[in-house]
């Protein structure tokens, strides 16, 4: 429903209600990777319009639940795609976000572009062609790491995929 509506208030309402339901469900079914995955996704979607501190806190909750989901279902490419997105966002935090993270957390979350790349490559290993967006992120990671030939290769591979692949759209635990 969140993806079908254009109204931002309605989107927030769907995400908020879904998060409440999934919070209860993940307590009852702690062994469900799907409960943890969708709780994380909804945390990310709800944080999109929040202040920097709230986005950062939501990003930490996002990571905690994706970590748990990966622990429960380590062969699910969707989970590595989401973790790759999280790592990429953390690696690209701006100065203000980094200062906020340092002020909020004794041990702030960290991730590198290399961490993001490893997660996106894991998606391809588990399910080649799973995600057009994932291949674009691989290209971006290689570009950021200074490997323009690998970046060009992955952009070409991304262009070969149809527009609608299997990854879940929406936020991946916005941290910045």
UniProtKB/TrEMBL annotation:
Lineage: Eukaryota, Metazoa, Chordata, Craniata, Vertebrata
Annotated organism of origin: Willisornis vidua
Keywords associated with the record: Coiled coil, Cytoplasm, Cytoskeleton, Membrane, Mitochondrion, Mitochondrion outer membrane, Nucleus, Transmembrane, Transmembrane helix
Identification of the protein by name: Regulator of microtubule dynamics protein 3
Membrane protein topology class: Single-pass membrane protein
Similarity comment text for this entry: Belongs to the RMDN family.
Locations listed in the record: Cytoplasm, Cytoskeleton, Spindle pole; Mitochondrion outer membrane; Nucleus
Segments traversing the membrane: none
Pfam families: RMD1-3
């Amino acid at each position: 429903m969140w993806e079908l509506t254009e109204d931002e208030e309605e989107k927030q309402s769907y995400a908020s209600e879904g998060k409440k339901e999934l919070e209860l469900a993940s307590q009852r079914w702690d062994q469900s990777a799907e409960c943890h995955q969708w709780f994380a996704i909804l945390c990310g979607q709800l944080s999109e319009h929040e202040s920097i501190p709230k986005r950062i806190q939501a990003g930490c909750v996002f990571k905690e639940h994706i970590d748990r989901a990966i622990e429960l279902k380590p062969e699910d490419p969707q989970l590595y795609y989401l973790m790759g997105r999280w790592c990429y966002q953390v690696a690209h935090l701006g100065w203000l976000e980094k200062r906020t993270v340092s002020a909020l957390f004794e041990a702030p979350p960290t991730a590198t572009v290399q961490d993001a790349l490893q997660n996106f490559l894991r998606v391809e290993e588990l399910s080649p062609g799973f995600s057009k967006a994932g291949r674009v992120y691989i290209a971006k990671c290689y570009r950021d790491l200074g490997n323009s030939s690998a970046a060009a290769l992955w952009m070409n591979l991304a262009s070969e995929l149809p527009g609608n692949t299997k990854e879940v759209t929406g936020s991946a635990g916005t941290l910045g």
